[in-house]
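BUG-232 | component: ligand-complex export | severity: low

The export step for zinc ion jobs runs without errors, but we want the raw record kept on the ticket for reference. Input record follows.
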Amino acid sequence: MNIIQKLTQNFWKGRNGQKPEAIVVHVMDGNLVGTDSWFANPASEASSHYGLNQFGEVHQYVQEEDTAWHAGVVLNPQWSLLKMGINPNYYTIGIEHEGNATSVWSAVMKSASVELIREISRRWNIPIDREHIIGHYQISSKKPNCPAANRAIVDELIALAKPPTSTPLRLKSRSQLFSTMLTTATVTLQAIATGLIALGATTIASDLVAGAIEIVLGVIVYILYEKLPASR
Ligand SMILES: [Zn+2]
């Protein structure tokens, strides 16, 4: 993807023995132009690896191998992968998004963010899930609206960035077919059994029901057996 370099002095060289293990999603509380100058100013003591605007333009401020200053303050964290006593900046990559807490993210910005997340994840072997793609609010309770008041934006990015599930469709549809057959067979057998009971042939009816239960159990076992490998 096309990335415009806007390198800043606000970073630490290297990662102090750590490597990127997660991506932190932020909102700028402003626009990309303002963020460019904020990160270019040493007095801000702030930076991020990337910044995106609503038109999908991507700026890079810090190299991924280096440590940006985007999520260093830990306060009441809600993140299971947080490492005690280690600055989160050392093992995360920060992506800033244009707008404020209540902005609607444009589809173009979301797809640029998704593409970037995919590329970073591939480079560093970062799983695309809710533990590895997180909101800034999960590191600091002082940032409750970063990346947005509606925190579902993080889930949305993950859903878009995730590769399609590897569940084989053939097995799934075969199980669905058996479920349908099972339902049909059960209804039919019930009707026959009810008819036989009405005719007074209770022994035949109970034999039929017992046989039907065996068939049903057999089919259930088969469905479970088919589903197991698919869910791995
Ligand atoms: Zn933030």
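Assignee comment: Attached the raw record above. The CA atoms of residues 16 and 90 lie 7 Å apart.
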